[in-house]
């Protein structure tokens, strides 16, 4: 497989299943945001270590994000050629992990400033990137239907990344900084 197909030199790119769109098409924007999130999760994996549960759970999420990207990159109405579609099972898995992470941290009734230890700061960055990817997918859904499971997955994932960031700080003995209005 060649890395430089040169097909995008005129600002267009191919969709899976045929068809061509401009590189600023909402479908390509959504794919790009999901790809950026996936890459950022790989970077998180370089800093997140046990006992933080995220350490062993980032790779399955990355695989799911490839499935989402594949689905988003398809022509409308077509099914991706590889990989399973994200469904209730994958969303449920994130919900289970979110419940576990939430139970392990002290309840919070305030906003938390992103940061803390290295792994928490990266997870907070991934959370913000996930929210941006979610917005891009919602924008795409305004012009071309996106399955609700994809949007639910990204919504749960951003919540989970926040909980894991809190968990990473807790496991590393780093206190959260509460936001207080000035």
Task: Offer a few descriptive terms.
mainly alpha, two-stranded antiparallel sheet, 182 residues, Hypothetical Protein Ta1238, Chain: A, 5 helices, 2 strands
Instruction: Work out the number of β strands.
Output: 2
Number of helices: 5
CATH superfamily: Cobalamin adenosyltransferase-like
Radius of gyration: 18 Å
Amino- and carboxy-terminal Cα gap: 55 Å
Given this structure, which CATH class is correct?
Answer: Mainly Alpha
Q: How are the strands of the largest sheet arranged?
A: 1-2
CATH topology: Hypothetical Protein Ta1238, Chain: A
> What structural category arises from helix and sheet content?
mainly alpha
User: What value does the average pLDDT take?
Assistant: 91
Estimate the global geometry from the Cα principal axes: elongated
Helicity, as a percent range: 40-55%
The structural domain count equals 1
Instruction: Tell me the series of helices and strands, N- to C-terminal.
Output: EEHHHHH
Largest sheet: 2 strands, antiparallel
In CATH terms, what is the architecture?
Up-down Bundle
The proportion of residues in beta strands is under 5%
Low-confidence stretches: none
